[in-house]
Amino acid sequence: MEPRAAAARHAALPWKHCIHLTLLLVQLSLPEAGASCRILRCNSDFVAATLDLGSSSGGGGAGGGAAPSREAVNAGYCSALRSYAMCTKRMARACRGDLAYHSAVQGIEDLLIQHRCPRAGPTAQPRPLPQGTLSGEACLYERSFLSREGRRPEYLHCGVFGDPHVRTFNNEFQTCAVQGAWPLVDNEYLYIQGTGSPTKGGSHATALTKITIIFKNWRQCIDQQLYQAELDNVPAAFADGSVSSGERRGQHSLTVRSQSPGRHAEIRAAHIGTLLVVRQSGRSLGLSVRSPRSIVEAFGPEQDLQLCVWGCPTSQRLNVLHPPAPDSSPSSAVSPWAHCAALLPAQDVYYQACVFDLIASGDTNSSTAAVSAAQDARNMISDTQRVHLLPVSSAEQHGTRLDLTLLLLGMLGTVTTA
C-alpha cells in the first residue's frame, strides 16, 4: 500500500484519527505492559482492519466504481469493532492488571454505542498478508534491497543532542528552544518522540529528558514494539522487558544491546535497516539515527512535523553562534572555547554546539553530548567528508532567504509586465 494513499484514507474518515490517537496515547503513557499481554496486537489488528474503509469516499471508487455508502462503511467499522472486542476477550486473563487493556475495552464499548453497532454480527476478516513477503530475506531490509536493486541502500543520518541541537537527515544543523513533546521521526514504520525540559543552568536552556520510540507493526516481521528512555534511566530492553522481538527463521527483526546499562542503548531494526542509539550525556539524552532514504521518506502529508526531517519551526530556532547568557556562572573557570577545542579539534557544528551548551548551562559535563554525537556521526556516515558540517549563522540564513524572496519577487514582476 502506498503511504500517501493510506494517508488519504485516514483523511477521509475523521473518526479513525481519534481511535489511532487514543491508542497511541495509551501506549505512550503505559510503558510497562506485561510481556504476556498482547493488547498492542489487538490494537494493530483493528487499525489494519479499518485501513480500507471509505478509501473511495468523496469520489469514484477504484477503477471508476461508486463510493461505498455511509451504511456500508459503518457496517465494516462495526465488524472491525466486534473483532477488536473478541481479541480483547481472548487477552482478558493475561491482561487482567494492565491499564492499557482496560482502556481499550472501555473505548470499544463507547464506540459500539456511538456507532449503534449490534453486539452480534459478522466480524472483520484478517487482512491477507502481502504476497512476496515469505522469503527468507523478507525481514532483512539490507539483503532484500541488495537482491532487488543490485546495490546497497542510501543511508541518512539524524542526530539530536544537547540543548537540543538537531542535525537533520538533510544535513541541516539547528539549535532549538523547544519544550514539551515533539516528533523527531514520524513515518510509516517508525515514530520517535522527544520531550524537552528547561535545564537548571539557564532560563533559555532546554534538554531532552525523555525519548519514546514506537516500531509499528509490519507484516510478519514484527508486532508493534515500544522503547522508552528517561533521564537517568536508559534501559537496555524494550518496555515489555524483552531484548529482542520479531523472531523469524532464527533471526530477530528488533534487538537491543548496551555498552553502558542505564546510560546507553543501541537498537537495531533489521526489517527497516535502521540503527538507533540512545544515550545520556551529562544531564540530557541524545538520539542518533541511521536509516535508509526510502524508510525516512515513507510518510504522508499529515506527518508534517518531524524535527529530523525539517528541523524545528522557525520561531523555535536559536543562533548557535550566540548562546544565551546563563542564569548562573559556570562551575569552572576553564574557557568554553578552550575546553571544547580540546575535545573537538574540528571547528564544526559539534564544536559550536559544545561551546553553546557549556555557556548556556554552565556545566562542563554538558560538553559530552556534542562529543558523543560527533562520534555517532562518524560511526553512521560512511563518507568521512560529510561528517563535519560548518556552522551557519541565523543572519546568513536570513540573508539567503531574503535574497531568494527578492529574486522571486523580481521574477514575478517580470512575468506581470510581460
What report would you give on this structure?
- There is one protein chain.
- This protein is of the alpha+beta class and 418 residues long.
- Helices cover 36% and strands 20% of the residues.
- It is built from twelve helices and 13 strands.
- The strands form two sheets. A nine-stranded antiparallel beta sheet has the order 8-9-10-11-12-1-2-3-13.
- Strand 10 and strand 11 form a beta hairpin.
- The longest helix has 24 residues, at 394-417.
- It is elongated.
- The two termini are 46 Å apart.
- The model is unreliable at 1-17, 24-35, 55-65, 128-134, 327-331 and 394-418 (pLDDT under 50).
Could you name the key traits of this structure?
418 residues, alpha+beta, 9-stranded antiparallel β-sheet, 4-stranded antiparallel β-sheet, 36% helix, disordered N terminus, disordered C terminus
Percent range of helical residues: 25-40%
- Rounded mean pLDDT score: 77
Distinct helical segment count:
12
Q: How many DSSP E strands?
A: 13
Principal-axes geometry comes out as elongated
Question: In which order are the strands of the major sheet placed?
Answer: 8-9-10-11-12-1-2-3-13
Residue stretches low in confidence (pLDDT < 50, at least 5 long) are 1-17, 24-35, 55-65, 128-134, 327-331, 394-418
Secondary structure class reads alpha+beta
Instruction: Spell out the helices and strands N to C.
Output: HHHHHHEEEEEEEEEEEEHHEHHHH
User: How would you sum up the major sheet?
Assistant: 9 strands, antiparallel
| Radius of gyration, in angstroms, nearest whole number | 24 Å
Strand residues, percent: 15-25%
| CA distance, first residue to last residue | 46 Å
